[in-house]
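We emphasize that the prediction below concerns an isolated chain of 210 residues; any contacts that depend on oligomerization or on bound cofactors are therefore not represented. The input was used exactly as deposited, without trimming of termini.
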Amino acid sequence: MADKYTREMLNLIRSIQNIDYIPPEDIPNIDLYMDQITTFMDEHLKSSKRFDEDKILTKTMINNYTKNALLPASNKKKYSKEHMILLIFIYYFKNFLTISDIKSILTPITDRFFENKDGLNLDDIYQEVFNIQLENIDSQVRDVIRKLKKANGAFSDIEDEKERNELTQFTFICMLSFDIWIKKTIIENIVDKKIEPSDSAKKKEKPKKK
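Result of the prediction step, given as a token string:
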């Protein structure tokens, strides 16, 4: 039974590699109405739903994001590809960060790169981040499997198999939760303690033209 439990857990962990995500090339390069955006997000991220009735994105959410200055206003009720990219970032961030933290993270990026015609834009940024994350999935899965093996070594002296499996699962959940807590704390500290360029870096910056 213990081997069966471990196999089931390993299959669950490895299924992360097949989770839905949105490749840059799949994001429509045309302006969309709100209902088209919600349909697109629901179709492309459906595997990340916990329950079938869950909604990935709703019109109310989009309106709230705009109201809270997380998302630039639409252009005559139509949203661009870059609006969509911001909504994808918000979707992932909102699972563990506050609206205030998300705003602190996204505002500098949006202010500088949203619909930027003279250089790097949000499309370029999403492409780069996506590629890095895609390369990182396998290492993340390996790390979670290492944690499972570590948890399986706990409470090995308990003879009752059901009790041992319950404690193993609890230990595994605790290890994953602590990992999430550490990363969340790091993100919050980065947001709270904005690191300014050093004096030497500032001196190297070219003066702005008047």
